[in-house]
Amino acid sequence: MIAKATVITHGSNAVRYSADKNQAEIVKTNRLPEDISPSAMWSWMVALQYQFREKLNRHRPLKNTSIRIELSPAREETKDWTMADWVRLADEYIREFDAVDLSRRAKRESAKSTNLKDSQYVVSLHRDSKSGILHLHINANRIDMEGNVNDAHYINERAMAAANKITERRGWVQAEDRRKQNIEAITRDITHILFNMDSFDWNTFAGKVEAKGYGITMKRDSNDRVVGYSISKGNSRYKSSDLGHSRNLTPSRIEDTWRKMHPEDTYHEQTDKPTLRRSDTSVQERHTQQRQQPFVSPQPMVQAPSEPKPVMFHHDIEVDGRHYLVDVPETANRVLTDEDIMPDDVLWSTLEDVQHTAILLFANYIDAAISISEDCGGGGGCCAPSSGWGKEDDEDDWKFARRCVNVARYMHTSTVRPKRERSRGLHR
């Protein structure tokens, strides 16, 4: 079983994501009223933080107000499980998480334990979109019911230590052993893929990897060359350097690995070129004529540098029954899809709503952006740009994307257009 944990600032987004995602099911809540919406769950957590604000802000404000945990047992370990089984796993995990003692490692007494059992949290069950593997999301208030802060030092180590304890008790395969098994299985499958490829091509390779049931993410440089890739299996991701032997499946070596598997193809590439015989009189005559002609030094060929192709991300956004197809450069896409795009005080819009609004603003689909905002109870047209909207002369893609994000936020949270944005061409 694999576990991951971190502390975050955007607790409302995390709670909404874990509870509102497609096919998500609420497993249990703790120290929260029953049958309340995800937005209300976070509101209750914020209310508790406000109650203890003087205690929390005594030395410095508490910035990371939420704990996010993801718990992923293997598919075979949870076969035929009922919801009651998932509830028992969540309860068992919370107990073990609290019991991990990291005081010596962190050199502070507060790391001796946590108190999630007496903290507000919600547990939801998710299904991985590609593999279908079930896993738990736990989103907890950083403070317990007495206003004490749950220690976050080495929190990811705490998460894995608790998971390993449960894995050992239940007789499951330890995470490190399963990691080795997964790496060996992926290496075998990739080796089989390379052996059956007539020639090496990254697009073909990626298609065959996905056909095996894996996910693949490739990183390209400005010249569109693959400089890194990772393979995902379920909720685990493995870098190319983890796979194969002696890094033979990394982007810089994988094509050589393919060639070693196909020596006959490499031989034919080298030997299929036409050869000339010395007895060929026409060839000898041409050589004689060339020797008789005065030698002229060839002029060096100057090749114009090729423009690097930007990496584009494709979005298909449906608004009122119409699909808007938007291509966004990588640098802008990172800004427009950042999960910190929305502050915690937004109650009715989802993270995806604000992201889609920003993307549509980037593509100048103003009416569609207004429609999403108004459907979510935001300011909509009152806070949206109109004539003159677009990228300024002094803006690159990154700066314009940041401006789109700021306007999208206001469209979902305010009924008054921000003064700073009015001066940037919302109304001219």
Architecture overview:
There is one protein chain. Helix 13 packs antiparallel against helix 14. The longest helix has 21 residues. The C terminus is likely disordered. The radius of gyration is 29 Å and the shape is globular. By secondary structure, the chain is of the alpha+beta class. The strands form three sheets. A five-stranded antiparallel β-sheet has the order 1-3-5-4-2, with helices on both faces. 28% of the residues are buried.
Which sequence of strands runs across the widest sheet?
1-3-5-4-2
- Number of extended strands: 10
Secondary-structure element order, as H and E?
Answer: EHEHHEHHEEHHHEEEHHHEEHHHHH
- Structural class determined from secondary elements: alpha+beta
Counting DSSP H or I runs of 4 or more residues, the number of helices is: 16
Task: Return residue spans where pLDDT drops below 50 for at least 5 consecutive residues.
Answer: 275-281, 415-428
**How would a crystallographer describe the biggest sheet?**
5 strands, antiparallel
Task: Give the proportion of residues in helices.
Answer: 40-55%
Rg over CA atoms: 29 Å
Portion of residues in beta strands equals: 15-25%
Termini separation: 57 Å
The averaged pLDDT comes out at 83
**CA-based shape:** globular
